[in-house]
Each structure stands twice: as C-alpha cells, then as structure tokens.
Specification:
The protein is an alpha/beta fold. It has a single domain, classed as Dihydrofolate Reductase, subunit A (3-Layer(aba) Sandwich), CATH 3.40.430.10. The protein has four helices and ten strands, in the order E-E-H-E-H-E-E-H-E-H-E-E-E-E. The strands form two sheets. An eight-stranded mixed β-sheet has the order 5-4-3-6-1-7-10-9, with helices on both faces. Strands 2-8 form a two-stranded antiparallel ribbon. Helix 2 links the parallel strand 3 and strand 4. The longest helix has 11 residues. The protein is globular and about 45 Å long. The structure holds NADP nicotinamide-adenine-dinucleotide phosphate. The site of NADP nicotinamide-adenine-dinucleotide phosphate has 26 residues, from strand 1, strand 2, helix 2 and helix 4. It comes from Dechloromonas aromatica (strain RCB). Belongs to the dihydrofolate reductase family. Keywords: NADP, One-carbon metabolism, Oxidoreductase. Pathway: Cofactor biosynthesis; tetrahydrofolate biosynthesis; 5,6,7,8-tetrahydrofolate from 7,8-dihydrofolate: step 1/1. Pfam families: DHFR_1.
Amino acid sequence: MAKDETLISAIGAVASNGMLGLAGWLPWDIPEELAYFEKTVAGAALVIGRLTYESMDVVPEDSFVVSRQADLVVRPGCSRVASVEEGLHRALATGKPVFVIGGASVYAAAWRYCHRFYLTRIERAFDGDSRFPESVQLSDWKVESETVRQLREYKSNTDVTCRFLIYQQINPLSLPETDCISVTG
Ligand SMILES: NC(=O)c1ccc[n+]([C@@H]2O[C@H](COP(=O)([O-])OP(=O)(O)OC[C@H]3O[C@@H](n4cnc5c(N)ncnc54)[C@H](OP(=O)(O)O)[C@@H]3O)[C@@H](O)[C@H]2O)c1
C-alpha cells in the first residue's frame, strides 16, 4: 500500500432477499444493529449518497455527500461532491478512517476501491425498494471475521439472526486522480 493510502471501508446491512432500503429508510428496526453501525463509523470521514444523507437525522463532520446537483446545499460540516471518487479523495485528505455508508448506488460505484466491507447479513426477508447491488460480489472477498448475534427486530417484535461480517478485498482498485475537485459545502 502506498504511504499516503488510508484504508477505505464500506459498511451496510442487507436482508436475506437482498433488500437494504424501504421508503428512504431501513426496512427493519434493529437498534443494536444501528448501534454497531454508529460505533464502527465513529470518528470517520463518511462518503454518503444524497438520498441516504437526506434520511439521516444527524450527520457527523467530514461527511461527503455524493450528488450530481452542483447547487445542492448541505449541512454545516458536510460537503457536496460530484462523484464517489471525489468523495473518497476528500475523505482521505481528512486523515481519518474512511467509510462509505451507502446507499445502493454509492456502494455500486465505490466497492472497487474498498479494502473492507462491514456487512451485517440479516437472516430474514424484508419488504424493500432498494436492493444491495449485484455488482458487489462479496463471495469473491475474503471473510476476515464473523460474529453471529440474535437481536430484537421491533417491527415484528421477534428476534432475528444477524451475522456481522467483515470482508476483505485483496486487491482493491487504486483511486484515480480526479480532475475536478469542487469546494462546495
Ligand atoms: N441497509 C443499509 O445498510 C443502508 C445503508 C445506506 C442506505 N440505505 C438505504 O438505501 C436507500 C437509499 O439508497 P439509494 O441507492 O436509493 O440512494 P443513495 O445512494 O443514498 O443516493 C442516491 C443519490 O446519490 C447521488 N449519486 C449516487 N451515485 C452517484 C454517482 N456515482 N455520482 C454522482 N452522484 C451519485 C445521486 O444524487 P442526486 O440525485 O442528488 O444527483 C443519487 O440520486 C434508503 O432507503 C436508505 O435508507 C440502507
């Protein structure tokens, strides 16, 4: 790894039928899974799709919101970026760990550059309108760790099996130089 290259990770959760989103939010209500997400990304610079960003109540500093809308106004501490690559460059420049937090379209554009993918596999099918991208072939990645927990899902008031996996991509693509780094936000 080059000396100025920080690890890029992605993080997300997916149902057994591939769903990851419903009506702009998550298809499930599993507070402990959300707490795992928050703990894992604490202190990191985030790369976020515009729709996911808009669904979040709290967005930490050094969040880079990917959008093709040049005039998008984002919250203080956040910046609009025109591409996932620009977002990753700007996030890396903070010197913090970098996490891509979705949604689906951002995972699809970012996975090539990711060293790790923290994925919670929720062992139940859920209704959804946003699906984990098929282009992210995690079966080709190495499983670095796996922890299985039974957690309460509050929409159904039942326990569900959650597999917390950390996948490692052995040879992620190097991030290309971007010609156009905007300084909005
Ligand atoms: N289960 C999970 O772990 C998880 C994680 C995150 C999100 N989610 C869910 O996923 C859903 C949202 O996902 P989504 O895929 O519909 O939306 P998204 O990725 O959050 O946002 C899509 C928007 O991001 C911008 N964008 C995406 N790719 C881009 C690119 N390559 N270049 C420039 N701009 C780009 C575009 O914004 P403009 O339209 O402004 O150009 C696009 O409309 C929500 O339901 C959310 O709750 C689930």
